[in-house]
## 1
Amino acid sequence: MRMIVRKAKGLSGRVKVPGDKSISHRALLLGAIAEGTTRIRGFLPAADCLATLACVRALGVEVERLSETELIVQGRGLRGLREPEAVLDCVGSGTTMRLLAGILAGQPFYSVLTGNEQLRRRPMGRIAEPLRRMGAIVLGRDDGRLPPLTILGGDLHGIQYSLPVASAQVKSAILLAGLYADGPTVIHEPGPARDHTERMLAAMGANIQYPISNIKLHSSKLSSLDIVVPGDISSAAYFIAAACLVPGSGVVIEGVGVNPTRTGFLDALGEMGADIVMENQREVSGEPVADVVVRAAELRGVEVRGDRVPRMIDEFPILAVVATQAQGDTVVRDAAELRVKESDRIAAIEAELRKLGACIEERADGFVVEGPTSLRGTVVDSHGDHRLAMSLAIAGLIAEGETTIVGAECIADSFPGFEEILTALAG
Ligand code: S3P
């Protein structure tokens, strides 16, 4: 599918974005192993979360879909899952594969996790290694580092583990396995990766402490929960960026999750001089939520490194687009993780933004953008990466003429309805 975007005159309106992807996955997975009935409202009906839904059902969990976004999960308790009859297909979802591997490590049965070509290239040694240390058998291609993964779970013991990278997926896989372990599981993380798993486990009654960077979990039963999923800040980021960039814009995005482990992009924009205000701050299902009000502003370059990187790990392609319009250099360091996302996001954003006329240079662990530059619409490629496709669509709003994004169908991996909301805001 090709998406065609033309230069916009100004964005205005109040919108809501679909439910948070990370929280939607966790609500299904934790609901599946909790005791009793978990109700999920605001579920994200995107391809990635639907992959988790299909896997959970293949493990014998009954899930009733009352509407696109409202689900009832009949939890089977920690030990009630059934050996799947066929291979579990995680499609393109790294979160599905890594978190589910943690749960499967605790099951006394055989399971195989696979995915599409893109997912089968993504590193799984980072979860296989700690899960093996806990006592599970985890096999895969390339010496156990690449999917498909075969898991023979069973008696696990708790471990003390220092994460080599600040990854919420790896942290969550170990925590979910830790629910089945015979001693405490202790994790030290090198940076603040999103803590949605910790929050949801605590809300479901798990014995968990999670002060910054040092998490301790004891094997616990989970109780069911009513979960309302907030709007996904990583989806809101595209409209926040667009409203900053297109002169004359004023946009309100309602009900956005603003968990501090996810708001690094707002902090970076604030340092760039953006006009962003959070209104109506509240807590929903243990997660902070706000309405985000954005007006266009003159921007300057920013440096992003260290602890801010995990707090905005999915927002670097859109940061690069914003940086093309900021005065001076924007420098990103310590972000080599971007190379193992749905695409090599450092190489891909450099290649595509250059086609539009941006001054961007790749570094081993980030990039440098020199701004401001005027962009010229042309044909660009999504690299099969939803975050790249949406970032390029926002670039199209500020580029002269017409921008065509080839391979835009991948937007459905995380954001069904992106085009409709963009059209409503940009007129
Ligand atoms: C996610 C964690 C992040 C993020 C991904 C979703 C999660 O990945 O990029 O889109 O739901 O835990 P890493 O944990 O690998 O950084």
## 2
Amino acid sequence: MEKYKELLKSRLKEKRYYHSLCVADEAKRLALKYGADPDKMYLAGLLHDITKNISDDEQLQTFKKFDIMLSVTEKASPLIWHAMSGALVVEHELGIDDEDIISSIRYHTTGKADMTLCQKIIFVADLTSADRSYPDIEEIRAAANRDLDECIIGILKFTIKDIVSKNKPLHPDTLDAYNYLITERKEVENNGNL
Ligand code: FE
Ligand code: FE
């Protein structure tokens, strides 16, 4: 773990490094609460933004190196590039072969349909970590302690409204994540009523 911290320190700005430590702590806490592997989630949280501070050019070079073709939406959404390149770097450069860690990093900004527990934990921890402050944070933190799916639905609603209101492109994975959770919850609720 110490060697990863040293590596991150050399790659990230101070504020981003601190954020990574906070997300790691929060991911471990959520893992213990919801029954995931706490050490694994700590490491995923620690590394989730590993390529956040590289230039757009370097991001694009990374995709080229690994033959990743960006969709039109992805090309127009540089903010999600670090999730895609981070997963590549963690797998191929750091040699971490744990699919939970790799995919949690891959989907930490967009989300996706049918997320695993590990993916949900990193998605949520990124927004409930101790360094975060935004208007509805206490509500989101309370939801994270009640029900991860409810928390993610809240985050996705905010994200989708925000992206659309700014005329920015919405990644299909984000919409899929929302549709999946809304439909799945409805089904569970309906079955419960039968
Ligand atoms: Fe990120
Ligand atoms: Fe982050």
## 3
Amino acid sequence: MLKINNLTKNYGQKIAVNDISLEVLPGQITAFIGHNGAGKTTTLKAIAGIIDFDKGEIFVNGYNVRTEGLKAKSVIGYLPDNPDMYDALKGIDYLNFIADVFKVDKQIREQRIKQYGERLKIYGDLGAPINTYSHGMKQKLAILSLLVHKPKLYLFDEPFVGLDPVTSHEFKEIMKEECQNGSAIFYSTHVLEVAEKLCNSVVIIKDGKIVGQGTMEEITKDKSLENVFLELEKN
Ligand code: ATP
């Protein structure tokens, strides 16, 4: 579902992402972990087509994100670390706008908005303008806006930040369901305990380079993910 070959991204003299290659298969939830400034957000933005890159190739569902950007974007759902939404719109108007962009049928969008809106406990607030929402409510709305168009590849940048424990739990269940239905999830996180339980694979990035990747079993063996990570950070 996602294939990255030798991706490099520089910001001026700074090499933010340095020749990384990885793959995320349908059905996989892959955690992308690394220290602050390791290159996670940069990688996610490059996959989502938000920033250009210097070297390498990225394929989403077989589409080259550079040369077939629109096709790639049509199957991607990207949740940034700080979602920017049209604040003056009501929640429901924002969802309808996103559903229009992704050409989601009226009946299907209504059913998804109700189903996932209720599960994420935001359905009752959709009639209010976004500028009256709390941080967590905005996060829920941004997640719901992805579930409205059901992407094949979900890209989440620290998705649990701001969510209350009940919503976090429900969101994890939804993530698992989406992957059981053939989507793939690639998400950055600093919460290693959750990643270890939730994900079947993991990619570890340090100073722009991948220093570990594989299934969760391969990477952790008899150690916790936290211990594996701390050891890699020491070297
Ligand atoms: P965090 O866990 O703190 O969110 P991250 O792994 O997502 O970090 P990135 O945001 O990808 O890290 O940043 C990687 C490197 O690129 C950092 O050194 C950062 O300072 C640099 N960087 C990121 N964005 C820019 C930019 N717009 N201009 C210049 N340098 C940038």
